[in-house]
Design brief:
951 residues; mainly beta; Jelly Rolls; TIM Barrel; 5 domains; 9-stranded antiparallel beta sheet; glycosidase; Beta-gal/glucu_dom_sf; hydrolase activity
Length: 951
């Protein structure tokens, strides 16, 4: 054997020795729902019941075609005598354990099984039946295993628990109730003497403490603890002595100047624990952790590493439509990235502990976590609850992302369990109660749910910190980002405001295998997300992203004396804005008759990152060129220190008055204009176009666009959306080359139609209002079924509400027609229908041709067709008359709770009040029907740079 061969053999032996000294794992199921293994399965009732077949594990048996579906609120749907399907599934699986494991401690580990789980190995009970669906549990099966031979695993899982308190806590809930082994199962082998788990407390001053739990100690005599930084460089080492039959030992030492863990700076370290007999390694284990100090200062706030932190959080169910709560690490990663993309810094694990992979992502990417013991609105018994608290905390305690333990939800608090958390959490994190009734503050924190804006102000004047663990319920299109700006400013500026957690992350839609995989959100019960079931982004997603941006820019329009300087506020808690990057773009927008949407980038540049400390204000100097006014738009993008985009702001540089002048200039073909009339109509004519105006009301009755008499069905407007339209006078008259029709109404409102010689139909209207109104402006009728798509210059691409204007930016947007109802199938976003903000021009492609509309004045909202924000007994809020509207004011949207309980949308904040209008409102609209004729019928149509209704 040559020297190289000897070295290789020596390394192999060393590797094998090290491997034998560490925990070894053999998966009996797949590692996740995408990597399953097939087991034998039998179920006692429901689909495919009564005979043995195969099932993929891990999974929910409903999603594999077995059993029956239950939603947790089925007892409401089906009455007082309703009983959940008490299904029992029996699993069988054969496995082999290697001879090399013979002198080791063998555990079988279940990461999650719904709900009561009885485990047998080779016909022998592994231990007592486990009760509780969301918790990792294990049995020592060392004395039941046949080594080197086939072993038989039998698992009986009851969907409903034999314990009433478990059913009350987990099953009588507002979410889908599923069954089966839904997280991985594996066997693990440890040396007889080993470290089963550790509890770490690492403080911001560099102090490291750990409770090291040991088992089977008879010859081991010391433990070495080594700390490694993110580059895997050893930064500290210490050891302690142990004695025979020790079960737990504590170690403490310090390092200098640790890199601290926060959601903004998720610096992780690794602790390696080595159990030795003298210098011989017996067992090793590793844990990642972070140095950070959490303080709850009563009457002040929540502090991380000495800095006050406010939660920009959301509630998250573990969920995927096709697989329920059986998911993958990639889904966990995607969800953390989406939460971070919304500029959030926190997540509540509602209403049970999540997969460990989710917590690892929160550790490494940076989110503050509320880890919650189940108990939707009823509590576990003390006997069972104590076991489940231990399983939850022992599994999760070393995750630095977890800053609170939550003992149940909305009445699901067993107060006898509050002291249990600290038994297994060396860092002694605070326990909170996520409640929905006032007066239940605990540990100095009030978490009361669904307070309105004004009751929130009152609570913030109380002695406790206020951190609602649910607020702005996002059923359908309500809540979420709607009125969030008001709430966030309230918390940000209040000493005891700690932020909060929106309800909820995703619409909990389940692909029903009994209905051809149709996604079911259980009517109004589960469409509560700001993302769809497959993470389709709703409008609130983008509103939240802007509202929660740690780079806060409030400049809505650029002032006339703009010099390239933009006021900014740093709403980070730990990051100086000099660590961010800022890039600007000068752009020109695409034209309405172009086949494209979007813009062309003309110039780009980088702004100097300002030196602004956390929570302070300052300015960004863009250093844009002196001729910036020659361009049509300005974009500013902020990125964080890792290169991730924080937000992009957009400003339109040219006013609509200038756009409207360009509109007229681009139509060079001039035709004589005339008017004819009959008993009921004035008919404005120009070349091949005719517009009929009713004599009794002044409204557009019909549009003819060519010599063949082809009609476009755009009509019945402008109807003022408030008040009656009683005509007092109407007349026709000429003005230079143009023809006008003026209609006056008894309430003082006025309409002037003007057909210009270039084919543009101009509408000037004015109206007066005094009081509170949901909307104001004018409407027309047009058949929705004729519309193909919409293109516009304005904010988008999502629709808005008065109290959710954030998140939409200037561009030329284009939406294909869809009938998406927010929160319901088919989740095709952006929604085509709705109110759209700050529109300069709109073009509808229809089966009858193009309809192009522009405005001379600023800040016009466009309403497209019929839609609602919240769906109950009827849609809400009510819509203006007609189905295409050009508005000066639009309504706010409440939440399902504000609407149904208080019947007052205005209770959720100043932005949610109706429009307080007083005065006369004037607007000019320009209509062009069809394509403009540039005089060359043989030439394919192209538009010059100065095009219709574009700047």
């Amino acid at each position: 054997m040559n020297f190289t061969t000897k070295i290789f053999a020596f390394l192999c032996v060393c590797s094998q020795l090290l491997f034998s000294q560490s925990k070894e794992i053999q998966f009996l199921t797949g590692k996740d729902v995408e990597q399953t293994k097939e087991w034998d399965f039998w179920i006692n009732s429901g689909r495919k019941s009564g005979s043995w077949s195969k099932i993929q594990v891990p999974s929910h048996w409903e999603q594999q075609g077995f059993g029956s579906y239950n939603y947790g609120r089925d007892y409401v749907t089906y009455g007082r005598n309703f009983k959940f399907h008490d299904e029992t599934g029996v699993y069988k699986h054969k496995f082999t354990i290697p001879h090399s494991w013979k002198r080791k401690t063998i555990n079988i580990v279940f990461e999650g099984s719904m709900t009561d789980t009885e485990v047998k190995i080779n016909g022998k009970l592994a231990g007592e039946i486990h009760q509780g669906a969301f918790y990792e549990f294990k049995y020592d099966i060392s004395d039941k295993i046949q080594f080197g031979k086939e072993n038989i695993l039998e698992v009986k899982v009851s969907k409903m628990s034999a314990d009433k308190s478990v059913n009350n806590a987990e099953r009588l809930a507002d979410y889908w109730i599923l069954g089966g082994i839904f997280r991985p199962v594996y066997v693990e082998a440890n040396p007889k003497e080993h470290i089963p788990w550790t509890a770490i407390d690492a403080k911001a001053d560099g102090t490291f403490r750990s409770n090291i739990y040991v088992k089977g100690i008879h010859s081991a005599n010391n433990i070495i603890v080594e700390l490694f930084n993110a580059e895997n460089i050893l930064v500290a080492k210490s050891q302690l002595q142990i004695q025979k039959e020790d079960t737990v030992k504590q170690i403490q030492f310090s390092i200098k100047n640790p890199k601290l863990w926060t959601a903004e700076t998720p610096n992780l370290y690794k602790a390696k624990f080595t159990l030795n007999k003298n210098k011989k390694t017996i067992s090793q284990t590793e844990e990642k952790f972070g140095f950070r100090t959490i303080e709850v200062r009563k009457g002040d706030g929540i502090f991380i590493n000495g800095s006050k932190v406010k939660m920009k959080g959301i509630n998250r169910h573990v969920w995927w439509p096709e697989t329920g709560r059986a998911i993958t690490g990639n889904i966990d990663l995607m969800d953390v990235q989406l939460i971070k993309e919304m500029n959030m810094n926190a997540v509540r694990c509602s209403h049970y502990p999540p997969n460990t992979s989710f917590l690892k992502m929160c550790d490494s990417l940076g989110l503050y976590v509320l880890d919650e013991l189940a108990g939707w609105q009823k509590k576990y018994s003390t006997e069972i609850g104590k076991k489940l608290v231990k399983e939850m905390v022992a599994r999760d305690t070393n995750h630095p992302s977890i800053i609170f333990w939550s003992n149940g939800n909305e009445g699901g608090h067993n107060f006898d369990l509050d002291a249990e958390f600290a038994k297994y959490d060396l860092s002694n994190r605070s326990v909170i109660h996520a409640h929905h009734k006032p007066g239940n503050a605990f540990n100095g924190i009030d978490c009361n749910h669904y307070e309105d804006y004004y009751s929130t102000k009152k609570i913030l004047e109380d002695e406790n910190i206020y951190m609602p663990t649910e607020f702005l319920h996002a059923q359908d299109d309500g809540g979420g980002g709607t009125s969030l700006a008001d709430y966030w400013e309230l918390h940000w500026n209040s000493k005891k405001g700690a932020g909060g957690f929106l309800w909820a992350f995703v619409d909990e839609g389940l692909a029903r295998t009994d209905f051809n995989n149709q996604i079911d959100v259980n009517a109004i019960n589960a469409p509560d997300g700001i993302l769809g079931p497959h993470r389709e982004k709703e409008g609130s997603f983008y509103a939240i992203r802007e509202i929660y941006s740690p780079v806060k820019i409030d400049l809505k329009t650029l002032p006339n004396n703009f010099n390239g300087t933009i006021p900014v506020e740093n709403r980070y808690h730990f990051t100086n804005l000099k660590d961010c990057r800022f890039e600007w773009k000068l752009i020109n927008f695409k034209t309405p008759f172009s086949s494209e949407s979007g813009f062309d980038i003309v110039k780009t540049g980088k702004a100097e990152s300002p030196d602004i400390q956390p929570t302070q204000k300052g300015k960004i100097n863009l250093n844009i060129p002196a001729n910036w006014k020659e361009h049509e738009g300005l974009l500013l993008t902020a990125t964080d220190s890792s290169g991730k985009e924080i937000y992009t702001w957009a400003w339109k540089l040219k006013p609509n008055d200038e756009i409207s002048k360009q509109f007229s200039k681009s139509l060079t073909k001039i035709n004589p204009v005339s008017v004819v009339e009959n008993d009921s109509l004035f008919i404005l004519k120009s070349d091949e176009k005719e517009f009929a105006i009713g004599k009794i009301d002044g409204l557009l009755k019909s549009v003819i666009v060519d010599k063949r008499g082809k009609k476009m069905t755009f009509k019945n407007g402008p109807v003022f959306v408030n008040g009656k339209m009683e005509l007092s006078s109407i007349k026709s008259f000429g003005e230079e080359q143009n023809q006008l029709i003026e209609a006056k109404y008894k309430n003082g409102n006025k309409i002037i139609w003007k057909l210009n010689s270039n084919g543009v139909l101009e509408l000037n209207y004015e109206y007066s209002l005094s009081g509170d109104f949901q909307f104001s402006g004018v409407s027309f009728d047009y058949p929705e079924n004729y519309v193909i798509n919409a293109k516009w210059l304005g904010k988008g691409p999502y629709h808005v509400w008065k109290n959710r204007l954030h998140g939409q930016t200037y561009n030329v947007w284009q939406n294909l027609k869809n009938s998406t109802r927010t929160g319901q199938s088919p989740w095709m976003y952006p929604e085509f229908k709705g109110y759209f903000d700050d529109v300069s021009w709109l073009q509808l492609d229809t089966a009858e041709g193009k309809i192009t509309v522009g405005t001379k004045q600023e800040k016009m909202f466009v309403r497209l067709f019929d839609f609602y924000g919240i769906y109950g007994a009827k849609g809400y809020p009510e819509l203006p008359i007609g189905n295409i509207s050009f508005l000066d004011a639009i309504p706010p949207l409440g939440t399902v709770l504000a609407f149904n309980i208080n019947d007052k949308t205005e209770s959720i904040g100043p932005e949610s009040e109706p429009n307080h209008l007083n005065g006369t409102f004037k607007r000019t609209l320009y209509f062009y029907f069809g394509l403009p004729d540039l005089g060359d019928e043989n030439k394919q149509f192209t538009m010059p740079k100065e095009n219709i209704l574009t700047d």
